[in-house]
Amino acid sequence: MRLYIDPGTGSMLFTILIGLISSLVFFGRKLLLKASFVLHGGKAQKAGKEDRVPIAIFSDHKRYWNVFEPVCDELEKRGASAEYLTASPDDPALEKEYTHIQTRFIGEGNAAFAKLNMMRADVILSTTPGLDVYQWKRSKYGGYYVHVLHAANDPVAYRMFGLDYYDALLLSGAYQTAQIRALETKRHLPEKEIVLAGLPHMDAMAARLQKAGPESHDGVNVLLAPSWGINGIFSVYGASVIEALLQCGHHVILRPHPQSLQSEKEMIEDLRTRFPDSEKLEWNFDNDNFEVLRRSDILISDFSGVIFEFAFVFDKPVIYADTSFDKGPLDAWWLEEDLWTFSALPRLGHALQKEDLPRIGEVISHCLTDEGFANARAALRDETWVHRGEAAVRVAEYLIEKQRTLTAQNDMPDELPAPQAS
What helix, strand, coil percent values describe the chain, rounded to 5? Predict the structure, then answer.
């Protein structure tokens, strides 16, 4: 008799096994470094307060500058000292001039994490999941680690243990708090500090749109912007979805997920060879997606966070590919409820099936004119995007106040002085 393990359980066990092996490897390396340090007569060096950064911001890729720029601008306004640390040598932040904020490139990949693991900072803000799971470890010099969302969707859609070891989470909707609390209960984790702060990048995008106004053009621009991986549109539908769109007579814009350019490079290059730029089709690789979203009339995607930017900021309809989704490797696997994303998508737009491809033009026309989708966008916007227009202020104020509180606590003596004899 053979033992059967379902795919979801198998994925979870594999993820846990990899996590345990990685932890043992890093623990072993740490022991070797300590042993070498002692054998060579090293002495522990205590970090002084003057060496510590009050607020540090870490970005693992330049594409997250749209999240951090509004926060950095707000910290600059308040004269708050901070460091912005990036793993992208061409991060736009490096070209921006600040008085109170220092921007630094700290290397790519493991080189960046090696520096982060020895960082001296009071408060550390990041969008990067997986703290204390793989390469990125909490610094031995301490620090309060804060995660901020870069998309208006589920915080449990990260790979397993994505947010477990953060001290605080800055979220954008009440349902997200419920998901995190349910996950903490399931895993017997201590409760993290949770603050509903909103979404800095979507606030900034909405402000830009109000200033720029709508973009006018002839015809209909259809934007195909999928996520990456085995569940993404390009992996599931391949060239067939592009061929179908080109038959509609609309202008088609193809914008692969930035991660596809690294993890699925061969596939993207093959599609670009088969479908080169023309009057009917263009490829878009802009780091900033604002202009391509502004000039598009409808978006076709899957479960990518760009769906919510397009629907909630630009108030335009979407078509989402009804692809299979394996939540086995994700934190969501632990929860009984489905992801909020998959309850929201059917209300936002049409679910695209393979059999819909021959009539994709009709589906596009329907979505462009159906008022029901517009009403749903308004309701869902309220569920996942709280404190609209206030996020950068709220995040900056939180970081400043948290740093002050931690500093005040660290300055307090461990024991009260003994009373003097009279």
Answer: 45, 15, 40
Phi, psi torsion values for 320, nearest 5 degrees:
-115, 135
- Copy the structure tokens of residue 141: 């010099």
Q: Enumerate residues 6+ apart whose C-beta is below 8 A from 293.
A: 223, 299, 306, 309, 310, 313, 314
- Residue for token pair 């914008």: 255
Residue range 402-421: mean pLDDT, rounded: 72
Give the pLDDT confidence score for residue 411 in this predicted structure: 72
Q: Give the C-alpha separation, 205 to 211, whole Å.
A: 10
Strand order in the sheet with 318-321: 281-283, 251-254, 221-224, 298-301, 318-321, 349-352
Answer yes or no: pTM beyond 0.85: no
* Structural domains of the chain, with CATH: 49-199+388-408 (3.40.50), 207-384 (3.40.50.2000)
**Whole-Å CA distances, 260 to 74, 134, 263, 391, 409:** 32, 22, 5, 29, 45
Q: What is the pLDDT of residue 65?
A: 96
Query: Tell me: the pLDDT tens digits for 82-126?
Result: 999 999 999 999 999 999 999 999 999 999 999 999 999 999 999
What pLDDT, in 10s, does the model give residues 148-190? 999 999 999 999 999 999 999 999 999 999 999 999 999 999 9
3-state secondary structure of 145: strand
